[in-house]
Fold each of these.
Amino acid sequence: MTTRLAPSNIQIIGNELAIAWEDGPETFTTFEALRKACPCASCCGEPDAMGVVMRPEVRYTATSFELRGWQLIGGYALQPTWGDGHATGLFTFRYLRRLGGVAE
Ligand SMILES: [Zn+2]
């Protein structure tokens, strides 16, 4: 049986996204760290035919690190909307926990 990694509470505290997880731990991730860890293709690149990932040069603006809101996707991921309109990054709960320094 696998532990279900689900947030029981998500809120913004200062410039951090604070998540309380159903199994106990809490994680705090700054907006900047969160945005820089955005796993979408335009931030992280996609592997080419040889499996080589060319990391694109990402330009951030003053509003890039403003978290406007988020959506929960299918009970497994969180999709933030950023001040500059970027909203294609899907952060799985597993990934969010790792970003917050909590092992599974
Ligand atoms: Zn992105």
Amino acid sequence: MIAGDRRRDLTLDEAEFRGLAAIILRETGIALPDSKRPMLQSRLLGRLRALGLAGFSDYLALLSQADGADETAAAAEREELVSAVTTNVTGFFREEHHFRHLAETALPPLVARARAGGRVRIWSSACSTGEEVWSIAATLRRLCPDAGTLDLRVLASDVDRKALATAEAGRYGAEAQAALSADRQRLLFGAAEGTVLPDLRASLRFRHLNLIGPWPMRGRFDVIFCRNVVIYFDKPTQERLWSRFAEALVPGGWLYIGHSERVTGPAAPYFAPEGVTTYRRI
Ligand SMILES: C[S@@+](CC[C@H](N)C(=O)[O-])C[C@H]1O[C@@H](n2cnc3c(N)ncnc32)[C@H](O)[C@@H]1O
């Protein structure tokens, strides 16, 4: 119903919250407790206004359309919903110790293997707006300027298409750059401002991917970054994901997770802790 047909009420009531939370859980794995109702309301108000809707029940109806052109509109709006509810906070070289470990421990044997003609795969599995994967690329570049000529690839993926587009564009504001040391600024941006160096792109691929959906990649990974995303999932979803990562990593591969996360459940015996939020696949 379009605003004007009846009085607008942009308050998210309990039943509407439950309906939206169920869609969000199904689409992303993100579990929203009741305490998140005000947050969800404020994040979605802009969508309701943009669509000219009179209230959240109309929004729910739009998201749930299942026929013909309506289904296309509903699918497009579910993408908007995902983008609105995901938290994209990130930063270059966030949780610095992972990049130190990557440079000093994980990468040197992988680079040697790639130079000997072997295959190496790295995955930034919830890359948000890209700072994480560009930090991986910069770390790799310092160790292996010829990475682009080797069978060494870095996959960057996220469920939020808008964040992923920002990641792929590789353009960042002055504020993000100012937080970097001069050395890292040079490594990422060269003398210019704004866009990451084209050389860093050589080994990177960007792809929309939902961690709770199918993973179409063939072959296993040597390194997986999955940081600051499972905190938004419920425990069964977290544990399923750890099991899938255990399958997706080669023996001896590395898993980096966020500062408040830890590997639990049936996959835990397959991961040996090796320092802060760093695990080695047994
Ligand atoms: C807080 S950011 C973390 C970014 C980066 N990994 C870091 O630690 O700085 C969380 C990211 O997880 C993504 N995300 C949430 N649910 C996801 C899912 N089911 N599949 C893939 N990515 C997801 C969000 O879109 C968001 O970009």
Amino acid sequence: MPEGCGSDKDCKLDRVCEAGQCVWPQRPARAAMAGTPATPLTDAEAGPPAQGMFRFDPRHRGRSPFLLPKQKPEILWTMETSAPVTSSPTVSAEGLVLIGGHSNKIFAIGKDGKPGWTFATGDLVWSTPAIAADGTVYVGSDDDNLYALEGKSGKLLWKYRVGACQQTVGIGPDATRCDVDAGPTIGPDGALYTGGDAISAINPDGKLRWRFATGGHVSSAPALAADGTVYAGCQDNSIYAVTPEGKRQWEFRARDDVDSSPAIEEDGTIYVGSDDNRLYALSPQGQLVWAFTTGDDVRASAAIGRDGTVYVGSFDGLLYAIRRDGTLQWAFRTGDRILSSALVDASGAILVGSQDDRLYAIEPDGKPRWSLELGGDVDSSPIIGPDGTIYVGSDDGKVYALRAQ
Ligand SMILES: [Ca+2]
Ligand SMILES: [Ca+2]
Ligand SMILES: [Ca+2]
């Protein structure tokens, strides 16, 4: 719950007092008040001082400010990384495409597809690079480190080891428990939120701000509400709400692992999937609003359209459009499991990958617009660059840039 305040001095961190509640600055107070009618924020209003991250902003709504092409795009270029790419891309202010790979590296690729810098870590990279306002790139690795890299050169600025797992790399319970696969998510004050064997908040200088212990591995990126509350799913079947100071607010128990990253609606509702096949809608107080049952695990993260429609893929192969009240609007069938998190473009069209090796563009009413076959599973979550180019990774080891004529 947002805490009450009389002046800015009553608010922790850099928050300010607006209408009796502590909120992040440059953010309309209505966004922080649960229960008020949702007025869609523009992306500029909602955006933190960061250039890019998994699901685009700390609330993880998966809303792109750009438009998907009407026509089926063609492959503009590909870059071979030699191992599957499940990480999702981000684009820097200089136009570099940043993405991690199972070749243990982070790649910076020029707009023309020419390789830029690479940075080698000690294990697989599932994490999506996040880019701070100053250009610093933050990315995690299965070697249990969160890395801060200089955006232009890829030079190491610092690394922070999450947890104290005895075996850091390879496979096995201890080797994977502290993996940094989650996000990171950049908060409005530059703090970094990630997973591993706990939920951690790390300052921009690489020092730990707080660590919230969980009963299992946190594999997906924490989301951050307008009031500073941190939400994260965990393989102990719980969804945790943690205060801006790192204290437990509430815990909601699902019936299986929660590997989906939470998405937060304007009114504070949290949408998150679970291996129990459900997509949950939870109130900011941690109460169940509704649960929508799909045919298999929901590991993808939900996207929230500007009209409040929620889009999420399931391992049953369907991409679901679910109304705010939890009823089905439509479902779109792909040929295999969906792990990729969908994007909603500026006009409400949807873009998502599937393990049938295709990338699908879907109209707001659920009709197919186009689909394009790539060389392997598309588990990476696609993005649209400012010039309309689509970027995505695939299990065939390639990073793709797609553009319509
Ligand atoms: Ca590890
Ligand atoms: Ca299941
Ligand atoms: Ca496949």
